[in-house]
Amino acid sequence: MAQKITQPRGTADILPSEIPAWEQLETTAKTLLKAYGYREMRTPFFEEMALFKRSLGETTEVVNKQLLEVLSQRKDAAADNDGGLALRPEGTAPIVRAYNQHDLGRNEFISKLFYIGPMFRGERPQKGRLRMFHQIGAEAIGRGANHPLLDAEMIALAVSMIKSFGINDFKLKINSLGSTEDKANFALWLRQELKGKIDHLSDDVKAQYERNVFRLLDSKDQGCREVINSLQIGTKHLSEKGRVYFEKVKEGLDQLGVAYEVSSHLVRGLDYYTHTVFEISYAGLGAQDAIGAGGRYNGLVEHLGGGDRRFPETVGAIGFALGMERLLLALEAEGKSRVAGRSMDVFVVAAKAEYETAAFALVHALRVLGVSADMDFGGGRSFKKQFEQADKLGAGQVWILGDEEIRNNTVSMKDMRTGTQITEQRTTESIARLAKAFHR
Ligand code: HAM
Prior knowledge:
The chain is of the alpha+beta class. It has helices spanning 19-35, 49-56, 61-65, 77-82, 92-101, 148-165, 180-194, 203-211, 222-229, 240-255, 300-303, 324-333, 356-368, 383-392, 403-408, 428-436; strands spanning 39-40, 46-48, 69-70, 85-87, 111-120, 132-142, 170-176, 261-262, 274-282, 290-296, 316-323, 346-350, 373-375, 397-401, 410-415, 421-425.
């Protein structure tokens, strides 16, 4: 036998039996997002590599190690200059790129956008960490997206979404990085504090100190964690304005009854963040316990060439993304992963191979009338086998075409739940009338 080909490492097939759980996440999320005023936007699965380098940061892990390059046939000069194309590792940068490109800020004071789809990162696969995974994301962008209550609303939206999926045992951590200047001061302070304290640590840690000192705050290196834990970080890097902003965000969360913990070590792995950052974790998931995360990214619109000269204020922006595979793992941990699939309305059984043509016509007539229906293409398999097939599909009714039914132009209908059976005419009018019952 020829060798089987399996899916690439770090990707997963989503089988038909798993689809109802995915659909439930998608429909619940969409209903809630629409209630909060968000509209869907769909962007390409790949973008210019330069977009991610410029927005997420050249020194971040995602850009440095995880961008999956698309080998294109492009021979034009642009391909040499900008490093070509990459599969999107996240949704924020593409949304901002599209926001700018289509000048959404021209007519909209605030644009509330959402997306659901696959993201790609060349990470080392493990439980809850894939190379192709799916996110549900929301982004609020615009001159009208500069209010601290919007930060509270965004976090509350993420939390209610997780709750409405049926996940309860999660933890929300928040922090503030302050404005761009506050962030620069924070980096300076950190470098000063860590000077001389990390010389005995690994080359990786030292390289991060040089390249992006914030990365050390959530370092997995044991020695580095000990040094970091000994620092009194708090909120002293925040300017008065930044501090007041963060206080207002917290007040908003209190007002909405959202429980949170302030964690001064939370910085997040992408460079675009300013002010509020947050992460939602689910303890039962082990090492990859973040089920969602987000934050504010004021200034990214301008950094990617957008903004409007007529308005001096920065375009505000905040958003979050939840990882769908991890949400499903969390639901599994809570014992709620089983979602019943939509079952079939009617399975038509033909008693003999020569009755299959009549069954075929009946199935087609039902489908046209909006009733889900199927039959066995088994060339007259036994009644038992066909009933087993109907059972597997979860058919509500089995419609039987036996000798008598074919002779009298009738059909016998068996209700699979109650076991009762009745016989009806097999005319166009009578089928139309019977089909209506399925739409009640
Ligand atoms: P992120 O923290 O990189 O943020 O990803 C958000 C969520 O996606 C994570 O909390 C996790 O649940 C899921 N995730 C990330 N990487 C993987 C992976 N390799 N395998 C499975 N799940 C994964 C962002 O992507 C930002 N764009 C969020 C954001 C939106 N910030 C502002 N707006």
